[in-house]
Amino acid sequence: MDLKRGKVELAHGGGGRAMAQLIDELFQQAFENPWLRQANDQALLTRPEGRIVMATDSHVVSPLFFPGGDIGSLSVHGTINDVATSGARPLWLSAGFILEEGFPLADLKRIVDSMAAAARAAGVPIVTGDTKVVERGKGDGVFINTTGVGVVPDGVEISGDRARPGDRILVSGFLGDHGVAIMSLRENLSFSTNIESDSAALHELIAAMVENAPDIHCLRDPTRGGLAATLNEIARQSGVGMTIREDDIPVREEVDAACELLGLDPLYVANEGKVVAVCPPESTERLLAAMRAHPLGRDAAIIGEVVADEHAFVQMETSFGGRRNVDWISGEQLPRIC
Amino acid sequence: MDLKRGKVELAHGGGGRAMAQLIDELFQQAFENPWLRQANDQALLTRPEGRIVMATDSHVVSPLFFPGGDIGSLSVHGTINDVATSGARPLWLSAGFILEEGFPLADLKRIVDSMAAAARAAGVPIVTGDTKVVERGKGDGVFINTTGVGVVPDGVEISGDRARPGDRILVSGFLGDHGVAIMSLRENLSFSTNIESDSAALHELIAAMVENAPDIHCLRDPTRGGLAATLNEIARQSGVGMTIREDDIPVREEVDAACELLGLDPLYVANEGKVVAVCPPESTERLLAAMRAHPLGRDAAIIGEVVADEHAFVQMETSFGGRRNVDWISGEQLPRIC
Fold this sequence. Notes:
The structure is a homodimer of 338-residue chains.
Chain A: H1 17-31, E1 43-44, E2 51-59, E3 65-66, E4 69-70, H2 71-84, E5 89-100, H3 105-122, E6 126-134, E7 142-152, E8 168-171, H4 177-186, H5 203-212, E9 218-220, H6 226-238, E10 241-245, H7 253-262, E11 276-279, H8 284-292, E12 301-307, E13 314-317, E14 323-325
Parallel strand pairs in A: 5-6, 10-13
Antiparallel strand pairs in A: 2-7, 3-4, 5-7, 8-11, 8-12, 9-11, 10-12, 13-14
Helix pairs in contact in A: 1-3, 2-3, 4-7, 5-8
InterPro entries (chains A, B): HypE, PurM-like_C_dom, PurM-like_C_sf, PurM-like_N, PurM-like_N_sf
Domain PurM-like C-terminal (chains A, B): 164-315
Protein name (chains A, B): Hydrogenase
């Protein structure tokens, strides 16, 4: 198998020798762990201590490589974060690849190596996988599904329906970096070099948050649809309103400027390494301190409060002293951002 | 949302109101269960009693609808079977959809309803999910990843590396139905009406097998690459050879005839509702009886033996009294068969 100049062929998904070779020489070597080495159609793992959590995410980001990451690292971070925002410790990942015939094996290797590095850095192994190949023109290079399993310690109860009036709303850092990094690249904008995706695995930050404020009510990562979608989801699930303050929402100047150029609103732009937390007022300062003590939460901020509102509106006090509704986006702002 | 005449739009993957509507009105309604109703980015499940097993499978079958099933039911059966062939009881499934812009919502609903029916019939709920949309021409209607989690009871040790010389090899029924059903449809052959996919969830059959013969060494479902690939995989993993008898391998006459027309070998054709078992000689009759007592194992047969062979060759005694090597396929025999 020529990993330098070769291309994905339909045979790589055919269940025969070519597929076995791709698995052995690429996936097994990169992901290398005892579970994958079982080489069965499933991974046999241990008996976990706690309630199981399961999350799945398919990744179709375009372009595949971008400042701050690629579809490989993103697919590891995204699912780890979806598991971790339940308060769970992520334990295992699966990886399902859909490859397009003709895709360069060298690019696939780069992506797989990046996944492997991200999984290793996070301490969450990729224990089982699957590869399918579709004909040229029926896919787009590589799509990756990752599914994660973790365990929630007893006593931790975090869910989008637990926000209560009086709770504080926090974010772990600057918003909009991921979406703007991708869009700048796509639009070929000159400022693209300065803004990098924030793609990161948040499970250790979240573990520190839960340890210091075990009464956190909600955690969610503001990915597609950005902060606006996340707050509206939680408001709807909990049957509460929210008030946020524009001046307190951390957005980098470059991101603000890029958004203006691209016609985007940073509140709606995807993040891949940020978490939104809702917690009771008495725990807020402890939670904020725990977040700021972690490298991925250094720029954390309290951005607003939960209020009683049967319409579940999210409202923002603007920098100009006004007030506006932060609605869901109704259309597609940024296709294939993750 | 017009589920009768509408089409998938990029907005359905955008994280905004359109996506929320698709999830509420289609996925939630069809899959309906308390875990999905949590409506978080992950499902919080119970603490399981036993070792965890995880399996993943992306489905890209073409065409999407075929005699005996569709991509929806197939995606449920395929992953349940990959979990179950470890001897595990499948507990939960995740579902990740990659939709192509312009795909008819009515077809999507048909697929989702079929998934829901298959999951319900199997007693394995779809507890969490994800939806992505790619632009027209960057996908092919619908791709579905399902990932399954199950638990293996203590004492059960089933793996592809446990085959030993003297062990018997069994299959649960007629081979080649799925692959031939798909290929007949693709090639528009007149006999297409007679052959149906064998797509089925095998976990109950397998539970009965494990209960009656707890010392089963290997179980695997002969999907892509067919019986030939499965036997070669097990032979390689276990470092043993295998001898099978052509006359004892159950293949329907119509499938044999269709294979001749299509230039296929039934040994290499995919199955989606069959299992191959390797077990010690003393348990063979008990295992065979347990298989035949189950509707999905009615036509089970003993097809050969494991032999000592450092080259891990799979050999077949042919109907004509000869002997030939059953090698891996080296190329792609049947693209997008699952």
